[in-house]
């Protein structure tokens, strides 16, 4: 049941669904963004993609974030924002089940933190609730961020290999730590792979020494050579961060909670002259996968 206690983004998605399709959605699911701290070691962020779905005689997809595109269908070219949802819909059954779908991504694509896996996961959950289990897997089913969106736990990171999934203790709140995301507002480049075995080594350090041990592993995985993220990382480290690396168009740092005010001040002062706007700074804890909202 959607009520006043429901998050505003969920309520808005339900409202848009009813305005677009003329009736309330039958089900709403949010799948969280899987943040790849290192390749294969991921946490779920508190934000993701919301998918609202309802039965239909045909297929229609609508994006809250690209509303000027109008309603898309599976016939003809599919807009970029609908590719993951269309792939999941087409793989759910043959023919694809009739579905109205509204997608709402809570983080701008320009951050480079969206992989499409969170959108695929939200669509999968909504279709499973509406039409039952799928006939087979879809192309993103094995993606670490997809698996994290479905299986994340609070206070844990997710260590994945092609055949395994392990929850690694990563209780930042108890350790007085936070993940700081520095959105630089710059065009992001393709992600570079982290060194082989980095995720397994970091997970081993977390099991032995706790969350603060991750910091040096993050910095070791940062690829220096891009002046703006390099400057952001050095500024954060000088102000008290324990480590960090560039992910997408952001720098992600492990920071003591007590040092956050100084780190925020230093980043804003150091980076603002080189940006079209001050950097956006978000803090996060590992977040559990969510139950259905409707």
Automatic annotation (TrEMBL):
Transmembrane domains' residue ranges: none
Domain of life: Bacteria
Biased composition (Low complexity): 274-287
Sequence segments annotated as region (Disordered): 274-294
Matches recorded under SUPFAM superfamilies: GHMP Kinase, C-terminal domain (SSF55060), Ribosomal protein S5 domain 2-like (SSF54211)
Name of the molecule in the record: Galactokinase
Species of origin: Actinomadura montaniterrae
């Amino acid at each position: 049941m959607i009520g006043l206690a429901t998050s505003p983004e969920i309520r808005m998605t339900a409202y848009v669904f009813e305005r677009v399709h003329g009736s309330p959605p039958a089900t709403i699911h949010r799948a969280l963004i899987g943040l790849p701290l290192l390749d294969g070691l991921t946490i779920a962020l508190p934000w993701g993609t919301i998918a609202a779905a309802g039965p239909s005689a045909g297929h229609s997809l609508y994006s809250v974030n690209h509303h000027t595109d109008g309603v898309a269908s599976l016939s003809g070219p599919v807009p970029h924002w609908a590719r993951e949802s269309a792939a999941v819909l087409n793989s759910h059954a043959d023919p694809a089940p009739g579905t109205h779908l509204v997608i709402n991504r809570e983080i701008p694509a320009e951050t480079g933190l969206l992989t499409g896996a969170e959108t695929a996961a939200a669509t999968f959950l909504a279709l499973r609730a509406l039409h039952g289990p799928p006939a087979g897997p879809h192309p993103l089913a094995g993606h670490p961020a997809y698996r994290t969106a479905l299986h994340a736990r609070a206070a844990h990171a997710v260590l994945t290999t092609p055949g395994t999934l392990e929850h690694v203790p990563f209780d930042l709140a108890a350790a007085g730590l936070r993940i700081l995301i520095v959105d630089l507002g710059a065009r992001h480049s393709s992600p570079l792979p982290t060194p082989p075995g980095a995720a397994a080594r970091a997970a081993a350090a977390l099991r032995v020494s706790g969350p603060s041990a991750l910091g040096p592993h993050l910095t070791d995985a940062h690829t220096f050579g891009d002046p703006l993220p390099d400057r952001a990382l050095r500024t954060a480290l000088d102000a008290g961060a324990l480590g960090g690396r560039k992910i997408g168009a952001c720098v992600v740092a492990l920071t003591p909670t007590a040092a956050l005010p100084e780190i925020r001040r230093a980043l804003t002062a150091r980076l603002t002259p080189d940006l079209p706007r001050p950097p956006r700074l978000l803090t996060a804890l590992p977040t559990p996968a969510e139950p259905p909202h409707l």
